[in-house]
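Entry for NHO complex. Fields follow.
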Amino acid sequence: SIDKEVSIAVVGAGGVGSCFLQQLAYISKNHPKVRFHLTYVAIIDKALYHKDFSDIDIDTALSTLEASGRPLPTLDVAVDYLASIPRKVVFVDNTSSQGIAEAYPEILRRGISIVTPNKKAFSGTYELWQQIFDASLSTGALVYHESSVGAGMPIISTLKEMVETGDKVLRIEGVFSGTMSYLFNSFAPIAGTGGRWSEEVRRARSLGFTEPDPRDDLNGLDIARKLTILGRLAGLPIASATSFSVQNLIPEELRGTMDTEEFLQKLADHDDKMELLKTEAEAANKVVRFVGSVEVATGTASVGLKWYNRSHPIANLQGSDNIISFYTERYGLKPLIIRGAGAGGHVTAMGVSGDLLKIVSQI
Ligand code: NHO
């Protein structure tokens, strides 16, 4: 029997958002206790919602939004509308919008819970982080963001449980970017030679493994954002994603405003340097990988190239997999290791849907 009714607002319906809507359709048909009402759907320029809060059919939401969506209201207007819904409301942010991220404290203050894979809010200023969790504490509205690190893998929930049950996290280390995982697994494989660096970047891009402009992966910022989030959850007041050492793999001369094609052509001039890195590691019977780590005792985080023995779990990743190792007091010398697909619409949306289920069971 149904014992709860919840309204869902979905903002963003791209790679992750469209997969999330498919999962929401499944959940709403199969949940034994909760009735889900899709009450608001929006993309960058359009929104679909009804004055009387009546339901939007989940299966056809996107085509209806395309055909008869109205112009996107301002965020203030949208939040006023959501706050007036006479039910519990969960706001699902499937965008990478900075503006929406900055509105989380206000959304929570209005009693609306939030689920999101968007890293911006949690890796921005420490002040925004505090405002978000203070607002949640004061109103009881919840905020979950599992997919902001490692897609659907249980990274954030695991770390939170360690901390909340009194384990002491000492170090977190891993490969946090599907793109960089793919690039280094094929550039410096544990067996065979791998291609030239710029060719590997070009190939990864054509296979859809990089951002449209690969510089957005090579600059290390995506990984720095994820480390900021994990470091803060482990108790470090990390000021921002640019407050610690991040190795930028974009050669300095190529950081200007040139277009992507010109960048890829010029990147070939730097292949010899990358080749040298690879052969130096090989000479020591190791492989080079691009990793991130948080060192809790010293309060530091870093992102950059490191060498690993061929037998090391970090050296043995495949495809665009992520791997995250938690070194804690409880786990001693053998870290808890979580490994699996770290990118892609369906697995990222699963983290979002899983969080939604956790929220509805608590509100
Ligand atoms: P898209 O496909 O660009 O879709 C964005 C949607 O938001 C569009 O529908 C757009 O119209 C809408 N939108 C943008 N601004 C809006 C606004 N102001 N109001 C209303 N709608 C707006 O982006 P994705 O790929 O679906 O990503 C969505 C979010 O999930 C982003 O925050 C992204 O960072 C996050 N995310 C995506 C992935 C992924 O695999 N695609 C992952 C994690 C988080 O695990 C993944 C990952 O880390 C991949 C990473 N590149 C890696 O490891 O290499």
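NOTE: The mean pLDDT is 96.
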